[in-house]
Amino acid sequence: MPKSKPTIKQILGKQPGKSGGGGGKKPEAAPSPLIIAFSRETGSGGDLIAQHVARALHYPIYDHELIQKVAESANTSASVVAAVDEKWRSVMEDWIADWANRRRLWLDDYLKHLMKVIGAIAQKGHSVIVGRGANFILSRDDFFRVLRVRILAPFDERVAAIAQEKNLSPEEATKYVNRTDADRRAFIRKYFNAAIDDPMNYDLLINMEKMTIEDAVAIIIATAREMEKS
Q1: How far apart are alpha carbons 112 and 132 in whole angstroms?
Q2: 137 with 8: CB under 8 angstroms?
Q3: What is the pLDDT along the chain (230 residues), one digit of tens a residue?
Q4: Do 43 and 152 touch, CB atoms closer than 8 A?
Q5: CA atoms within 13 A on the CB side of 68
Q6: Which of 113, 135, 150, 204 could be bridged to 37 by S-S, CB 3.0 to 4.6 A?
Q7: What is the distance, to the nearest Å, from the Cα of residue 32 to the centroid of all Cα atoms in its chain?
Q8: What is the layout of strands, in order, in the sheet containing 34-40?
Q9: What is the pTM of this model?
Q10: How many CB atoms lie within 10 A of CB 222?
């Protein structure tokens, strides 16, 4: 039987948001932070939508910044973390890479530090977190309120967007989209025993085929505003 993954509470060594108390009347608990956790298909525009949502709600956003924070937590370089970020390799590939480069960060260590960093971010207050399985990590502890968003788009549109963004040929862009989607899918399956494209893992699924960026942002903001009231 596979070993179960630890929760944020176990990694941080305490229950988020709770402090030791003395006698007397317990203070009324403050509302827990609202975290908007974005999952996105490659080239769907999810990163840009997350930025607009964070700006409109005045929430801090964590995307590529997570790489540096995980590096600091693991006492390694950002380039080492970037090599495994949202990816999964076989045990043999990890062993070979570790033999060749002793500074390599093993994926289990990456996950432990990632959970620690995301848990610490979520305790600070409302925020937007992009990718890295944040919707799965935070949903395992009931302290957090999490709005789980997945952004989708037709494959051809995603390839075209990546080709333009990264100045790639259609063939190169197709390979990039397929490889990145596969990495993220394998990462979620390996470490959270879940399917990244299972709709039951999300509160909002937005297909960008007939929507503008502004439409998607408006839907997410409206939902977040309602959740802030609860």
Answers
A1: 12
A2: yes
A3: 445 555 555 555 554 444 444 455 545 556 678 999 999 999 999 999 999 999 999 999 998 777 777 777 766 656 655 655 545 444 434 433 443 444 444 566 777 888 888 888 888 889 999 988 899 988 766 677 899 999 999 999 999 999 999 999 999 999 999 999 998 998 898 888 899 999 999 999 999 999 999 999 999 999 999 988 87
A4: no
A5: 4
A6: 135
A7: 19
A8: 61-62, 127-130, 34-40, 145-152, 204-207
A9: 0.77
A10: 10
4: its two tokens: 């179960």
Q: Between the CA of residue 11 and those of 67, 82, 115, 135, 154, what are the distances in Å?
A: 18, 22, 8, 17, 38
Name the β-bridge partners of 38. 130, 149
What pLDDT score does 128 carry? 95
Q: DSSP for 154-212? A: -HHHHHHHHHHHHT--HHHHHHHHHHHHHHHHHHHHHHHSS-TT-GGG-SEEEEGGG--
Paired tokens of 51 = 């930025």
Nearest-angstrom CA–CA distance, 38 and 51: 11
- Cα 77–chain centre separation: 20
For residues 208 and 187, give the distance between their C-alpha atoms in angstroms, rounded to a whole number. 24
